[in-house]
Structure prediction request, 198 residues.
Amino acid sequence: MTLMEERAAAQMSVEEFERLAKLVEKESDTVRLEFIHGRIGIKGVTDGDHSEIIRWLQQRCMQVRTDMWLYAGGELGLLVGTYRKGHARPDAVLAPQGAFVGQGTWADPAGVLMTVEVTSYDSDTDRRDRKEKPAAYAAAGIPVYLLIDRDHDTVTVHSDPSADGYSVRHVVDFGTKVVLPGPVNIELDTEELKTFVR
Prediction:
Protein backbone atom coordinates (compact mmCIF):
# COMPACT_ATOMS: atom_id res chain seq x y z
CA MET A 1 0.00 0.00 0.00
CA THR A 2 1.39 3.41 -0.94
CA LEU A 3 1.58 6.34 1.44
CA MET A 4 -1.27 7.98 -0.47
CA GLU A 5 -3.45 4.87 -0.09
CA GLU A 6 -2.64 4.66 3.64
CA ARG A 7 -3.67 8.31 4.14
CA ALA A 8 -6.90 7.74 2.22
CA ALA A 9 -7.65 4.63 4.28
CA ALA A 10 -6.96 6.50 7.53
CA GLN A 11 -9.67 9.02 6.59
CA MET A 12 -12.22 6.49 5.41
CA SER A 13 -15.40 6.12 7.42
CA VAL A 14 -16.79 2.76 8.45
CA GLU A 15 -19.77 3.28 6.14
CA GLU A 16 -17.45 3.96 3.17
CA PHE A 17 -15.44 0.85 4.03
CA GLU A 18 -18.58 -1.31 4.15
CA ARG A 19 -19.69 -0.05 0.71
CA LEU A 20 -16.22 -0.70 -0.73
CA ALA A 21 -16.01 -4.17 0.87
CA LYS A 22 -19.39 -5.18 -0.60
CA LEU A 23 -18.32 -3.99 -4.03
CA VAL A 24 -15.02 -5.89 -3.87
CA GLU A 25 -16.71 -9.08 -2.66
CA LYS A 26 -19.30 -8.83 -5.44
CA GLU A 27 -16.65 -8.34 -8.13
CA SER A 28 -13.80 -10.52 -6.87
CA ASP A 29 -13.50 -14.10 -5.70
CA THR A 30 -9.79 -13.71 -4.97
CA VAL A 31 -9.69 -11.07 -2.20
CA ARG A 32 -11.62 -9.91 0.84
CA LEU A 33 -11.24 -6.60 2.67
CA GLU A 34 -10.75 -5.99 6.39
CA PHE A 35 -10.68 -2.73 8.37
CA ILE A 36 -8.48 -3.02 11.47
CA HIS A 37 -7.23 -0.08 13.53
CA GLY A 38 -8.42 2.32 10.84
CA ARG A 39 -6.50 0.61 8.03
CA ILE A 40 -7.80 -1.35 5.08
CA GLY A 41 -6.24 -4.77 4.70
CA ILE A 42 -6.53 -7.23 1.86
CA LYS A 43 -7.00 -10.89 2.66
CA GLY A 44 -6.24 -13.18 -0.26
CA VAL A 45 -7.92 -16.43 -1.13
CA THR A 46 -6.48 -19.47 0.64
CA ASP A 47 -4.58 -22.43 -0.80
CA GLY A 48 -5.34 -26.16 -0.43
CA ASP A 49 -3.06 -26.70 2.56
CA HIS A 50 -4.64 -23.71 4.33
CA SER A 51 -8.05 -25.30 3.82
CA GLU A 52 -6.80 -28.67 5.07
CA ILE A 53 -5.50 -27.05 8.27
CA ILE A 54 -8.94 -25.56 8.92
CA ARG A 55 -10.55 -28.96 8.20
CA TRP A 56 -8.09 -30.60 10.63
CA LEU A 57 -8.94 -28.07 13.35
CA GLN A 58 -12.67 -28.30 12.69
CA GLN A 59 -12.54 -32.07 13.12
CA ARG A 60 -10.71 -31.77 16.45
CA CYS A 61 -13.08 -29.13 17.77
CA MET A 62 -16.16 -31.14 16.83
CA GLN A 63 -14.80 -34.25 18.58
CA VAL A 64 -14.38 -32.42 21.88
CA ARG A 65 -16.83 -29.50 21.83
CA THR A 66 -20.07 -30.87 20.40
CA ASP A 67 -21.84 -27.82 21.83
CA MET A 68 -19.79 -25.50 19.59
CA TRP A 69 -19.22 -24.95 15.89
CA LEU A 70 -16.06 -23.90 14.10
CA TYR A 71 -17.32 -21.40 11.54
CA ALA A 72 -14.70 -21.57 8.81
CA GLY A 73 -13.73 -20.24 5.44
CA GLY A 74 -13.24 -16.56 6.21
CA GLU A 75 -16.86 -15.82 5.28
CA LEU A 76 -17.87 -14.62 8.75
CA GLY A 77 -16.96 -11.02 9.48
CA LEU A 78 -16.52 -9.81 13.06
CA LEU A 79 -16.69 -6.35 14.56
CA VAL A 80 -13.41 -6.09 16.47
CA GLY A 81 -11.71 -3.35 18.41
CA THR A 82 -13.07 0.01 19.38
CA TYR A 83 -10.97 2.23 17.14
CA ARG A 84 -12.99 3.06 13.99
CA LYS A 85 -15.18 -0.02 14.52
CA GLY A 86 -12.74 -2.59 13.16
CA HIS A 87 -13.92 -5.29 10.78
CA ALA A 88 -12.00 -8.59 10.48
CA ARG A 89 -12.55 -11.89 8.68
CA PRO A 90 -10.93 -14.65 10.75
CA ASP A 91 -10.05 -17.91 9.01
CA ALA A 92 -12.23 -19.64 11.61
CA VAL A 93 -14.33 -18.76 14.64
CA LEU A 94 -15.32 -21.11 17.48
CA ALA A 95 -18.72 -20.15 18.92
CA PRO A 96 -21.96 -21.75 20.09
CA GLN A 97 -24.11 -23.05 17.25
CA GLY A 98 -26.54 -20.36 16.16
CA ALA A 99 -24.47 -17.54 17.69
CA PHE A 100 -24.73 -15.44 14.54
CA VAL A 101 -28.40 -15.90 13.66
CA GLY A 102 -29.93 -12.60 12.59
CA GLN A 103 -26.60 -10.79 12.42
CA GLY A 104 -25.46 -9.08 9.26
CA THR A 105 -22.20 -9.17 7.36
CA TRP A 106 -20.23 -8.00 10.42
CA ALA A 107 -21.21 -9.89 13.56
CA ASP A 108 -20.84 -9.01 17.23
CA PRO A 109 -18.02 -11.15 18.72
CA ALA A 110 -19.70 -11.41 22.16
CA GLY A 111 -20.27 -15.20 21.98
CA VAL A 112 -16.97 -16.05 20.30
CA LEU A 113 -14.66 -18.35 22.28
CA MET A 114 -11.77 -18.39 19.81
CA THR A 115 -10.62 -16.87 16.54
CA VAL A 116 -8.17 -18.70 14.29
CA GLU A 117 -5.75 -17.46 11.65
CA VAL A 118 -3.54 -19.61 9.43
CA THR A 119 -0.67 -17.68 7.91
CA SER A 120 -0.62 -17.20 4.18
CA TYR A 121 2.51 -16.91 2.11
CA ASP A 122 2.13 -13.18 1.47
CA SER A 123 3.90 -9.98 2.46
CA ASP A 124 1.18 -8.81 4.90
CA THR A 125 1.17 -11.92 7.12
CA ASP A 126 3.53 -10.54 9.76
CA ARG A 127 1.68 -7.27 10.24
CA ARG A 128 -1.82 -8.71 9.83
CA ASP A 129 -1.75 -12.10 11.62
CA ARG A 130 1.01 -11.57 14.19
CA LYS A 131 0.40 -7.95 15.23
CA GLU A 132 -2.84 -6.27 14.18
CA LYS A 133 -5.27 -9.16 14.56
CA PRO A 134 -4.12 -10.28 18.04
CA ALA A 135 -4.50 -6.69 19.23
CA ALA A 136 -7.95 -6.33 17.66
CA TYR A 137 -9.22 -9.71 18.88
CA ALA A 138 -7.99 -9.01 22.42
CA ALA A 139 -9.60 -5.55 22.44
CA ALA A 140 -12.87 -7.22 21.37
CA GLY A 141 -12.60 -9.53 24.42
CA ILE A 142 -12.25 -12.78 22.45
CA PRO A 143 -10.84 -15.26 25.02
CA VAL A 144 -8.46 -17.21 22.74
CA TYR A 145 -6.65 -16.39 19.51
CA LEU A 146 -4.99 -19.35 17.79
CA LEU A 147 -2.33 -18.61 15.18
CA ILE A 148 -1.17 -21.52 13.05
CA ASP A 149 2.05 -20.17 11.57
CA ARG A 150 3.22 -21.98 8.44
CA ASP A 151 6.24 -19.68 8.06
CA HIS A 152 7.70 -20.74 11.40
CA ASP A 153 6.06 -24.20 11.79
CA THR A 154 4.57 -23.10 15.10
CA VAL A 155 1.25 -22.80 16.87
CA THR A 156 0.75 -19.74 19.06
CA VAL A 157 -2.04 -19.65 21.63
CA HIS A 158 -2.94 -16.16 22.81
CA SER A 159 -5.17 -15.90 25.89
CA ASP A 160 -6.21 -13.59 28.73
CA PRO A 161 -7.39 -10.63 26.61
CA SER A 162 -7.51 -6.98 27.64
CA ALA A 163 -7.65 -3.63 25.87
CA ASP A 164 -3.84 -3.76 25.75
CA GLY A 165 -3.65 -7.17 24.04
CA TYR A 166 -3.34 -10.77 25.16
CA SER A 167 -1.24 -11.15 28.31
CA VAL A 168 -0.48 -14.87 27.77
CA ARG A 169 1.24 -16.09 24.61
CA HIS A 170 2.26 -19.76 24.39
CA VAL A 171 4.25 -20.93 21.33
CA VAL A 172 4.91 -24.58 20.39
CA ASP A 173 6.49 -26.21 17.36
CA PHE A 174 4.43 -28.33 14.99
CA GLY A 175 4.46 -31.88 16.35
CA THR A 176 3.90 -30.80 19.95
CA LYS A 177 0.69 -31.16 21.97
CA VAL A 178 -0.86 -27.89 23.07
CA VAL A 179 -3.85 -27.09 25.28
CA LEU A 180 -6.26 -24.36 24.26
CA PRO A 181 -7.22 -22.81 27.61
CA GLY A 182 -10.71 -22.10 28.91
CA PRO A 183 -13.30 -21.43 27.80
CA VAL A 184 -12.14 -23.49 24.78
CA ASN A 185 -10.61 -26.42 26.73
CA ILE A 186 -9.30 -28.50 23.83
CA GLU A 187 -5.97 -30.32 23.55
CA LEU A 188 -4.43 -30.43 20.07
CA ASP A 189 -1.79 -32.84 18.83
CA THR A 190 -0.15 -30.73 16.11
CA GLU A 191 1.85 -33.53 14.48
CA GLU A 192 -0.37 -33.58 11.37
CA LEU A 193 0.31 -29.88 10.72
CA LYS A 194 3.78 -30.83 9.48
CA THR A 195 2.19 -32.23 6.31
CA PHE A 196 0.57 -28.88 5.43
CA VAL A 197 3.65 -26.67 5.03
CA ARG A 198 5.86 -25.96 2.03
Remarks:
- Residues 5 and 40 are 9 Å apart (CA to CA).
